[in-house]
Specification:
heterodimer; A: alpha/beta; five-stranded mixed beta sheet; 11 helices; B: 230 residues; six-stranded mixed beta sheet; 5 helices
Chain lengths: 372, 230
């Protein structure tokens, strides 16, 4: 949850224009790419050498600093404080990643940074440092779409999925189903009409008195709840379509909580019923999306992808229906630099890069990206 | 000695290059376009001086106070450049750089004021020294124009957007001692470069990760306790 709304009409930075270049830079195919993620409250840095057949093998280092503690006192992410922390943490993390990989900046073949969507001030820190670094090194730079990073994160695992596949992207800021026809060719099949799945977890936890960010704590509590003690609806599953809506569910929980004895076991029971409602809803929509696209591969991405119940229920559905589910490791479900390094390395290897300006796009349509 | 300086803390976006005895610069009043201008400006200056990026000895930056986003842009750009080129960074107060925009006048005190929005100003007072540098007369701070405390001086020069917004209040404070005032001045990279060169020679350059913004306004949100929610 972000306390202040994103600066919607901010004109800082121009629209990201990719240019295809074949002359100015030699292709950085075998040189490591630095990936920088600063779109919200995690500073992530990674080094990755593009290995088309096994991208995970090319990952040389990744480091992360989470600001969760910083924002906990405020009950949510404070954009200005997030930006201030990125400035303090980014360079030490880059140095740490380089040391971990046994490299120096002079070994880099390119720099990738999250250019959007996200908090404008936070994005600008990574984009400015990353763009200037590439400028000074004389290597190409590319602004990466944060969601593309998440979509491609499962490619970092053993036996990665090949497009076409369907991706369920569920985090504190997003809940969407995306058809990935090829890398760079995305169609949004469904999106949330109100709260994101992770946001619903955090808000529900908050109204039952769990401290920020309560989502993971709520999921843990659900494990101690009794099945069937409460039951909430599966929003928007009674009609066709792939969109989500989770804010009504939150209201149901609030009513149930207010009318209950508010004891420890009741809290766990409600948490369990809430988690089941969310997970069931996500599973139903994933099945529909796979059916609609005729695909047998489902990729899970985003912070909520770390939810154990969601993972086991999707795996079970996959066994029953005959589709395969791909999960990134837990570290790469949440925001990280590795996914940005990967998405950037793919585009740089294809000859795409950006001019010497710092470009961020707080709002950026995933479907507007060029093919990689 | 080759030093590249960046100043983006206010509406003015500027880059300057010290190359031997030469000081060249680019500057534009371009609110919201700083992100597009800095690196191309740097490229132009390096080309004009006929040197490559690797010939640089230090990066300098106006580290604020000013617009938060602008200050971070400059600092992040400087950090990135310096990391890539294995160079130190010299940070310079944007108020000090602004003070050097005042016309040269012997013995006068300079009040540098930037409109900090929300009814406040960033302010600091200086005097020119004999070598074209500055001596700080007090600490830089954020306050209202009405509550601004000033050191004793018989002649004042005021520069910066704080004057444009609070000329009435400030001129009352400086009755009889005001020699000049210009509310249309901004911190400029040429002065960041001049001040940074002195700092560099004095051994005050830092590792790039230690070059950090100075915001002055540090209370930007209320905690849950302060909101009465915890």
């Amino acid at each position: 949850m972000v306390i202040c709304p994103l600066v919607r009409d901010c004109q800082i930075g121009r629209a990201a224009n990719y240019t295809v270049d074949t002359t100015e830079f030699s292709k950085p195919a075998n040189k490591p790419v630095l990936g920088i993620e600063t779109s919200c409250d995690e500073t992530g840095v990674a080094l990755l050498r593009w290995e088309p057949d096994a991208p995970g093998r090319g990952l040389l280092a990744h480091t992360l600093y989470s600001q969760i503690k910083l924002h906990a006192d405020y009950g949510g992410v404070v954009p200005e404080l997030a930006s201030r922390d990125h400035v303090r943490k980014l360079l030490p993390l880059i140095r740490e990643a380089l040391a971990e990989a046994g490299l120096t900046v002079h070994d880099l073949g390119g720099v990738a940074y999250t250019a959007g969507p996200g908090l404008v001030g936070a994005l600008l820190v990574g984009a400015s440092a990353g763009r200037a670094l590439a400028w000074a090194l004389g290597v190409p730079a590319i602004g990466v779409h944060h969601m593309e990073g998440h979509l491609l994160a499962p490619l970092l695992e053993e036996d990665p999925p090949e497009p076409p596949f369907v991706a369920l992207l569920v985090s504190g800021g997003h809940s969407m189903l995306v058809e990935v026809q090829a890398i760079g060719r995305y169609t949004i099949l469904g999106d949330t009409l109100d709260d994101a799945a992770g946001e619903a977890f955090d808000k529900t936890a908050k109204l039952m008195g769990l401290p920020y960010p309560g989502g993971p704590a709520l999921a843990k509590l659900a494990g101690q709840g009794t099945a069937g003690a409460f039951r909430f609806s599966r929003p928007m599953t009674d009609r066709p379509g792939l969109d989500f809506s989770f804010s009504g569910l939150k209201t149901q929980v609030l009513l149930a909580w207010q009318q209950s004895d508010q004891g420890e076991q009741t809290r766990a029971d409600i948490a369990r019923a809430f988690e089941e409602a969310i997970v069931d809803t996500l599973v139903i929509k994933c099945r529909r999306a796979l059916e609609a696209t005729g695909t047998q591969r489902l990729v899970i991405a985003g912070g909520v992808g770390a939810n154990r119940h969601l993972r086991s229920e999707l795996a079970r559905a996959g066994e029953k229906d005959g589709f395969r589910v791909y999960f990134p490791r837990l570290d790469f479900c949440t925001d990280n630099g590795a996914m940005i390094a990967l998405a950037g390395a793919i585009r740089l290897a294809g000859g795409q890069h950006q001019d010497a300006t710092v470009q961020v796009r707080p709002r950026w349509d995933l479907q507007s990206l060029p093919a990689a | 000695m080759n030093l590249l300086a960046i100043e983006t803390a206010t509406e003015a976006c500027s880059v300057a290059l010290i190359h031997g005895d030469e000081l060249i610069a680019r500057s534009e009043i371009a609110p919201r376009r700083h992100t597009e201008l800095v690196l191309p400006m740097a490229d132009e200056l390096l080309a004009e001086a006929g040197i490559g990026r690797h010939a640089l000895d230090a990066i300098a930056v106006g580290r604020g106070p000013g617009a938060f986003t602008g200050v971070r842009l400059g600092v992040s750009l400087a950090q990135g450049m310096a990391l890539a080129l294995d160079l130190p960074v010299v940070t310079v107060s944007s108020l000090a750089a602004l003070a050097l925009e005042a016309p040269e006048e012997e013995g006068a005190a300079i009040l540098a004021v930037i409109d900090a929005r929300m009814g406040e100003i960033y302010a600091a007072c200086y005097r020119r020294d004999d070598n074209g540098g500055l001596v700080a007369l007090d600490d830089e701070r954020i306050c209202t124009a009405a509550s601004l405390m000033l050191p004793e001086a018989s002649a004042w020069q005021v520069v910066g957007t704080g004057w444009a917004t609070y000329a009435t209040v400030l001129s009352q404070r400086l009755t009889g001692t005001l020699h000049s005032a210009d509310g249309s001045r901004y911190p400029q990279a040429v002065h960041v470069a001049e001040l940074a060169l002195r700092e560099f020679k004095a051994g005050h350059a830092q590792a790039p990760e230690l070059a950090l913004p100075v915001y002055l306004r540090d209370k930007v949100a209320l905690t849950l306790v302060e909101q009465g929610k915890a």
